[in-house]
Amino acid sequence: MSSTAAPGTGSGPATPAGDGPAGQVPGGRRGLWSVDDHLADVLGAIQPLDPIDLPLSDALGCVLVQDVTVTVALPPFDNSSMDGYAVRVADIARAGEDAPAVLTVVGDIAAGSGEARTVGPGQAARIMTGAPLPPGAEAVVPVEWTDGGTGGGPATAMRPAGAAPQGATGEVRVYRPAAPGAHVRGRGSDARAGDLALPAGTVLGPPQIGLLAAIGRGTVRVRPRPRVVVLSTGSELVQPGEKLGAGRIYDSNSFALTAAAREAGAIAYRVGAVTDDADELRATIEDQLIRADLLVTTGGVSVGAYDVVKEALSAAAEDEPGADEPGAEEPGDEERGGGVGPGGRPRPAGGVDFRRLAMQPGKPQGFGTIGPDRTPLLALPGNPVSSYVSFELFVRPAIRALMGLEDVHRPRVRAELRTDEALTSPEGRRQFLRGAYDAEKGTVAPVGGSGSHLVAALARANALIVVPEGTTTVEPGTETEVVLLG
Amino acid sequence: MSSTAAPGTGSGPATPAGDGPAGQVPGGRRGLWSVDDHLADVLGAIQPLDPIDLPLSDALGCVLVQDVTVTVALPPFDNSSMDGYAVRVADIARAGEDAPAVLTVVGDIAAGSGEARTVGPGQAARIMTGAPLPPGAEAVVPVEWTDGGTGGGPATAMRPAGAAPQGATGEVRVYRPAAPGAHVRGRGSDARAGDLALPAGTVLGPPQIGLLAAIGRGTVRVRPRPRVVVLSTGSELVQPGEKLGAGRIYDSNSFALTAAAREAGAIAYRVGAVTDDADELRATIEDQLIRADLLVTTGGVSVGAYDVVKEALSAAAEDEPGADEPGAEEPGDEERGGGVGPGGRPRPAGGVDFRRLAMQPGKPQGFGTIGPDRTPLLALPGNPVSSYVSFELFVRPAIRALMGLEDVHRPRVRAELRTDEALTSPEGRRQFLRGAYDAEKGTVAPVGGSGSHLVAALARANALIVVPEGTTTVEPGTETEVVLLG
Asked: Residue ranges under compositional bias (Low complexity) (chains A, B) (predicted)?
């Protein structure tokens, strides 16, 4: 039996951003943030997008921000649930197969008819499904209970009105009695004016869209889909389809993460790979801010000499002009950052904090806000598997939080580990291995190794196997936690 | 434990279209088609769309039509998995915390570097994650195992190259030995040239898109998303947001089904409601054919005098000029139709067959092909619940079959019925009641009644409760079949 996930898994409650004990680096002495602390920091800084009025046709998948009440009763008037004849029940009380009631047909009521003639004693009106019950009538007898006005015995259908206009006149034989209200849908029997149609927070799927249309709502106030800009960094990156030079690789992250952002519900824009030049990166990001509710970068966040995202965007770089100078970077310096830095200093208003997570893959991560609107930015590591796993764990929840969804996480289940050899995991890190989950059997098998460059294996996985921080070996047959992807 | 559904449920194997016993009407004497027979007829007539080459960015969710093999090894060259120093292992074999190996730094290798200097005995090259291993080097030592060239003890990071260009020269102290190949990702260790990257039939999710990008594919041959045109019929229909006149209701079907088609993976176009005029409907459909891979109509398929879809599109109307004339429609006439009509006559090449299904809701249905390209058309009943349930059971699988997906059906599970009173269902009909499924408890409760106008209840449901044809009463606590929606 599957269960929807709690955000954290195992390693204690997350420290809300800016709410941690002053002077204490999240994650403790080694400067490593826990997965949960980082996630809490991200989600704590994300506000759902401001609501807008959208045409109903554009609101699929969006979250309603206010209760919608019914203003027009559903259905708005008593109407027929069958094609047949509207009658007075006394007239057909004794009708039978051998003794049909013979009624005078006084007209035709199509769906959409306005004023209808009153049905008097001994009379009937031919009526279509959805058409308003005429005054005087108390029930509808289906056409199959009549001769359809043909005089030729029980009917199975009416003739098309265009071909047989005389069907709305003459006589009809009714072979069965009907109770008052039979085959009549009463006004308001589905919903009454003033009823709550949908509460705030409802995610609009097709049936909810249908209900809003049915009660006459042409537009609806929802949180829009977030616009997510994805850019990859790295002077080694080549656009797929182009020629690959020596020492170069194809850019895959921006394609994979743009697709993943779309799947998460975002309107995603892929920006071509940016080279490892801090000025170029800053300029590109500045250009993109206009259309971004969230920015995602990949690469350049680690400890290398060309880690451009870190160089261009780090909070330290903005706050401390001297940080660029030789000698300003000391061992331990990168432990700084986060919602609360050493000394309890709150995160700078603009700028991105780079931190190391107790996680594999995905150790180096950046998070912060940028630009005049404080647009959130997640800087993911550049290895393809690291960036994808980071997206699943941090960006996808952020996108869904922007949408105002309550359930921002992938479902998690427990499954029996199927593997020939025990899995090994580094001490103190939460490991996310790619796995093939079998729902029928309740099992999961590792796919490929732990290398963060194994994109071919990633493409064969449908789950992430979670190995907790305190666990270094997982024996075959162990029940393990699994994050279900896609 | 949930399971993916088999297409049919319970009532025997489906009769493939055009393959039934000659002279036998599917469903037998009463002229009712089973749900399974109708579904088999629809799916039997649907061909997956012809494949096209799509840019990778547009291929999310599409199905690959040919095997994709790896042409460039992944990774394409031996490269570093860490930021650090490329070394010869003999030079650092006896390195220790107190006795570091001191190597001459001969240069800097950033990711994307082409030709690199050979690393000779006693030398090292500073190297970044993803950068090609230089000639002569056998392993990489992470920067954290060195002094980072600072002479100041173990380092935690490199200085940004822009700020500290001298990092690529001078000396570096290495505090630990490394084995050959340490922190090196070998060429082809993820995938080798000639390997099968993805087999035909793969559904392209984000990781698969990423893999295709990684091996340099800028475009990919897939089946496109089907273009689905949805139109509702009925003179009573008013566009949401406009004023509702007497006897009129808002058009909800076209909104709900367009949304549902999008959710199923289609590119969906909503056409405004068409009045009950056969010529107007034919003209509208003709106009829409140009952009339709599949047409869906709602309303006008039953036995009423204004059932315009049936009037405008029925195969009989096209085949038999006399069918429009009075007297041509006899009792039992509507039993005709389907893949094999009475007398084993195959379905007319163009035209839509209207039939009754042993189903509630959704008894009247039409299916066929139309126009010069034999575009498939499903004509659904007009009641909102009927049309939505019909969409789920027949149109969604059709859309997914057009996409070339193998798994076209919603998942089905078994759940315990939670209800105060027994459910009742008409004899001989397969009933689909709206339900609220609780995955945690494995239970399902009916939501609203069986009325096919109850759209408010539909909007609170997440499942359909299936009551088989032979069952007329379902007691509380019974294990029942449930179709999971959304």
From this structure: 1-23
Helix (H, G, I), strand (E, B) or coil at A71: coil
Tokens 């079959």, located at residue: B401
Express each pLDDT in A340-376 by its tens digit.
433 333 444 568 999 999 999 999 999 999 999 999 9
Radius of gyration of chain B (CA): 33
Which of A70, A159, A166, A388 should we substitute to test contact with B (largest number of B Cβ atoms within 10 Å)? Answer: A159
Confidence of residue A272 (pLDDT cuts 50, 70, 90): confident
Contact assessment for residue B476 and residue B418, using Cβ atoms and an 8 Å cutoff:
yes
Q: What was the pLDDT predicted at B351?
A: 83
Residue ranges and CATH numbers for the domains of chain A are: 32-46+225-402 (3.40.980.10), 54-74+189-223 (3.90.105.10), 79-182 (2.170.190.11), 412-484 (2.40.340.10)
Of A114, A303, A382, the CB nearest to B143: A303
A305 with B164: Cβ contact below 8 A: yes
Tell me what pLDDT residue B5 has.
40
Chain B residues lying within 8 Å of A245, measured CB to CB: 114
Query: Judging by DSSP bridges, how do beta strands A63-64 and A219-223 pair with one another?
Result: antiparallel
Reported ipTM: 0.85
- What is the rounded average pLDDT of the residues A428-449? 94
The CA distance from A239 to A246, in Å, is: 14
Which of A115, A163, A388 is closest, CB to CB, to B246?
Answer: A115
Structure-token pair, residue B284: 């509208």
Instruction: Tell me the mean pLDDT in the region A473-481.
Output: 96
Angle at A187 between CA A182 and CA A190, to 5 degrees: 95
The CA distance from B313 to B352, in Å, is: 6
Nearest alpha-carbon partner for B432 in B367, B365, B362, B381: B362
**pLDDT of B295-319, one tens digit each?**
999 998 887 777 889 889 876 444 4
Sheet holding B139-142, edge to edge: B139-142, B84-87, B123-127, B101-109, B171-174
